[in-house]
Amino acid sequence: MAGCKAQHPPAAYLAGLEVPAAGSEVTMEGVRYKMNAPKDVDPATIRFVEVDHDKCMACGECEYHCPTGVMQEVTEDGYRGVVDPVACVNCGQCLANCPFGAIHEEVSFVGELYEKLKDPDTVVVSMPAPAVRYALGECFGLPTGTYVGGQMHAALRRLGFNLVWDTEWTADVTIMEEGTELLERVKHGNMPLPQFTSCCPGWIKFAETFYPDLEKHLSTCKSPIAMIGPLAKTYGAQEAGVPAKKMYTVSIMPCIAKKFEGMRPEMNASGYRDIDATITTRELAWMIKKAGIDFTSLPSEEPDPALGMSTGAATIFCTSGGVMEAALRLAYEALSGGTLADPDIKVVRTHEGINTAEVPVPNFGTVKVAVASGLDNAAKLCEEVRAGKSPYHFIEVMTCPGGCVNGGGQPLEPGMLQSSLFKSTITKINRRFTRRSVA
C-alpha cells in the first residue's frame, strides 16, 4: 500500500531529553508513576495501583469506587490498600476519584519507550484508542471532550514514532466480527445467548474471576488493541516493509487495565509480543510536554495507511453503548436485508446504570439488548444469565462510568487534587455533570 513505509523522523524533540531511569518515580499529570516495564511476569500478580499511606487520609473514597471490593482497610488507622491483585480489575477508578492523590501507578513503560524512540534500529508503532483523542486536549487547556485526533497523530510523529497507526481501524474489525458472531448465535444457536461484549479488559478480568461459568457467553473476539497488535507485526509489517522483530508496538489507552491486557501471556499471536508497551493518555500528555511540543499549534494530520483508516462506528466505541450501537447496525442490515434509515441508535447509549432496549428488525423480530455501565450493574445481568432468566440477545459491559472516555488512565478531573476536602468534594459532585461523552 502506497505511503505506508516506516518513516524515520528527526529526533530533535528528544535530543538532550533525560530518560527516566528504571525504578525511578515520575509525576505525570498529577499522578506518580514508577518506571517499571515488567517482562515475562504473570500480570495477575502485579499491583498496578498502590496506595501511599503517607498521603492517605482514610476517607474511604477509593473503597467506595472499587467495583470488586479489593480495596479495603489494611491498617487500624483505616488506611486502604489492594488486598489481593488477583481480584483487582485494574480499572483505576480508585485513583481517578482519590481526593488526596494518594494512589499511584506501579507500572510505566515510558522510560523504555524513550529508549526505543531514540534507537535508530527500532521501528516504533503507535496504536491509540478512540477515547484518547477526546481527552488528550484537556492536558493542554482545551475544553473537556474536545476532539484532537489530528493533533494527536501529529504529536506522535514529532515524538519520533515511525508508524502512526490507529486502534480505530480494529475497532471497526471488532464490530464486524462481534456482529457476525451474534448473528451466528441468533440464527444457528451454536453458542449460548446472550452474547457479552469482550472489548473491556476490566470487565473480562471481572468475568473470568467471578463468573467463570459464563465464559461461553463472552464474545470470542479479541479487543481492538489485541487485534491491531498482531496485525501490526504481520500484515502491517509486510505492508511497511519492516521486519516484525524490529517493531516495538505501543498501545496508547485511556485505561490502566489495558496494561494488564497487553501483558497477558496469550498476546503473542504474531510470533512475538503483540503489544510491547502500554501507556495512558496522561503519560502521552506528559511526554508531549516534556519534549517541548506546542500541542495546540500542531496541524491536524491523518494516521498512516494500512492500519490507519476507520469509520464513525469505531469512534463511538469509546462511549458506553457505542459498541452495542455499532454492532446493531451490522446485525440489523444482515438480519433484515435492508438498510437503516437512520444509523444512530442512541437509545442504547448509557451514561450510568443499566439501559435496555428492544430493536425491531424486519424479517426477524425483536432484538433485545442491554448495556451496563459499571461492574456492579454488570453483576446484576450476570446473575440473571447464571439463573437462566436473561431475556437478552446481546449485552455490552463497560467497567468505567460512561465508557472508556472516563477510564482510569484519562486526565484527572480539574480540582480533584485539592488540599481542601471541601473543594475536592465539590469537584466530585461536579464530576457527575462534566464526564466526557461522544456525540
TrEMBL record:
Stored InterPro entries: 4Fe4S_Fe-S-bd, 4Fe4S_Fe_S_CS, Cytosolic_Fe-S_CAF, Fe_hydrogenase, Fe_hydrogenase_lsu_C, Fe_hydrogenase_subset
Name recorded for this polypeptide: Iron only hydrogenase large subunit-like protein
Enzyme class, spelled out: oxidoreductase
Keywords: Iron, Iron-sulfur, Metal-binding, Oxidoreductase
PROSITE patterns, sorted: 4FE4S_FER_1, 4FE4S_FER_2
Presence of keyword 4Fe-4S: no
Signal sequence, start to end: none
Any GO MF annotation of the entry: iron ion binding
Alphabetized Pfam families for the sequence: Fe_hyd_lg_C, Fer4_9
EC number: 1.12.7.2
